[in-house]
Request: fold
Amino acid sequence: MREVAIVAAGMTRFGELWDASLRDLFVEAAQQALTTAGVDRLDAMYVGNMSAGQFVGQEHLGPLMADHLGMGGVPAVRVESACASGGVALRTAFMEVACGGSDLVLAAGVEKMTDGADVTEVLATASDQETEVYQGATFPGLYALIARAHMAAHGTTEEDLAWVSVKNHGHGVLNENAQFPRELTVDQVLSSALVSEPLRLLNCSPVSDGAAAVLLCPLDQASQYTDRPVVIRGTAMATDSMALTDRRDMAFLDAVAAAGARAYQMAGIGPEQVDVAEVHDCFSIAEICCIEALGLAPLGEGRHCARTGETALGGRLPVNTSGGLKSKGHPVGATGVAQAVELFEQLTGGAGERQVADAEFGLAQNMGGTGASSVVHILQAT
Amino acid sequence: MPSPRYWREIPSRYRLEATRCGDCGRVSYPPRRICFACRSTAAETIELSHEGRVVASTVVHVPPDAFLMEAPYALAIVETPEGARMMVQVADCDPASVEAGMSVALEFRLIRKEGKGGILCYGHKAVPAYPLGGEAEAARRAREEEVAHA
Amino acid sequence: MAGIAGYGAFIPRRRITTEEIARQWGKDPGTIQRGLLLKEKSVPGFDEDTITISVAAGRSALARAGVSPSKVGALYIGSESHPYAVKPSGTVVAEALGIGPEVHVADFEFACKAGTEAMFVALALVESGRVDYALAVGADTSQGAPDDALEFSASAGGAAFLFGRDDPLAEVVETISFTTDTPDFWRREGEFYPRHGGRFTGEPAYFKHVSAATSRILEKTGLKPADFRFVVFHMPNGKFPLSVGKSLGFTREQMDTGWVVPTMGNTYSGSSPTGLAAVLDVADEDELILITSFGSGAGSDSFVLRATGLLRQRRGLAPSVRSMLDGPRRYVSYGEYAKYREKIIVNE
Reply:
């Protein structure tokens, strides 16, 4: 396999973007990446998107986006793995370049969630339709069950959960693309409305519109497009049972651990070498479970990391310097790619006030459903 | 919900039909063609007991539209004596009172309606296992033991 | 002799008090309670209906009978609140209980006597030898119009009876039906609440038919009121059954066990069937039981039963009516009641 680099990135602001349609969002992010790289052609496109069909009645996104990007004719396909769609789009784009099939591939993710669909119902389709959705389970409800299991196993408290949101907002306030660029206090989180006990409104990532894109090429061609490419050293994916009732251990994300282990092995590094990470904090509990599964915090200790500042900017291992899904926003299909965009900025020294000094290795973990799919990328600065 | 899909699920929803793997003994609910644990296709159909214990629970405050009027409701993972797990609402109690370890009975209930004119979709919900009193209580305990040791 | 091989009942666990409803409409609770002899009634949740109640009662009936569902050759559900206007309740109940597919299923309706209707037919089918076992259920979740007298009594619940030929828990000695066309209470297609003729529902309707059916069955069997240990009448409120019982020569003691209405309300097709179940929960060997239902429109079914020794052995295998009436339950406000009974207009 050839070595693959990310040579450009682009993203829209995340938020309730009433003026932008699904197509508008995609084009804006993709065009940013193309312009930065000075590129007017593509060999292939992968569009990460969870549910345009249900949100805006639109399927067949590959050709649609190629069309509107002015790249008609280019092979383009929509990739779906619920909330991990973006990460899987990146992985698939990587494969196409790595295997020698293409030299210039766009991996982009987009989601338009605010056009009036019943978001709760649409998102629930990422879980088990027959056994979970049918019975009235919601996404927050399922993660609430995971939280309860984690609390029972490790003593995690509602305050621990609140600190994750507070920490991520502390980062998001520094991100001009964030949906909620403002600080939060633990009290505000703990007094916000209950969504599904113990998760409250401010433990949950918001409903967002947005798109993100990265441009991939073989490492030995990267200098055509940028002085500072970022190398994709590891990419891995793993799956787990769809229904929570079939999980080995409800308090532990097996798919995340498996994907992480494979990615570390491919990259030839261990968790201790990760300098900055973007993990899938769709709900506060998810970040805690993810850093434990990735070996970035010892099992049962993940709950302390936000409060102690270990995973905050300036700490041992800054996690979600972008603001995470909570503060930056979570346009579902775009998130996995947006994580790569943040790491690209970090590893090229372009993260401004969010910059982690001398960051060499970045890790992005993007997850689908309640952890039924997980995709991990490890990037290295050059 | 399209009728054919609902109709296919009647055995598992109405009668709690599950499969027990002929090789490793793992019970899958709903039934599976391939055992999740060992990939065997040797499956035996069984009907689960109408009782179990809560493994974990939450109270849903923000429901999907179909359950709008019913929130807040308790949602739990319940394990039956056969070792099968299912996700069910817990009814007929204060949702906040549901906790892990609680004994429940499984009752046949209307789960959802497809709007004003669509089909009615039935299934099971858990209710706290109220003491039945006397012989019925003893009979229930005996059944639980019998199934757990089967 | 054919009879009841198994029986069961189910009463939803929510309640609303007469007082709470009276307060809503600015009525004096004391007057209502004394006038109707009603204290509280059962309220079904969104997840409960005639079908779910029938399944619960049916499961208990099969448990007490110790009979495999595959042996049940007929299943009848009597109700005036079948969940579908067109599509039988019985098919859902049959599948849920594991009965069939070789089974005769039909839904019955005859206002409040649809349950005993089903019992009459189930019994006859078994007596004829056409089937070995037949299950008859009377269950309802009927509505009472707001600020109407019926709102105090219309409640939810039901009872199921498995009829069989050999070794019943209670033998059926005799049964008759008495029917005339009497427009005392009705509901037109598409209307949400039923309507009734006020005081016309008394003498010419309830009292006439209950008295006629009971008198005729006494005549037919040569039995007198004093021969019975228990008597159950349809209970539209607390007063009517006590009144008709007294006029027919029965004592309060005979009526007490089956008089479940003060804390259950009127479960329509489930009313006298549930009273009968309450009686079977305590009846001793050889004790005689009389039950007369009433359905508006109008008619009454009457049964004379004799308890057997088997009853005492089997009845502990499922919950008793009293354990459901007196057991864990939750009281709701009028607002919650209106929500559960879908009296509140919402967008689709």
Q: What stands out?
A: Residues 141 and 196 of chain A are 5 Å apart (CA to CA). Chain A is about 35% helix and 20% strand. The longest strand of chain A covers residues 230-239. Chains A and C do not touch (no CB pair under 8 Å).
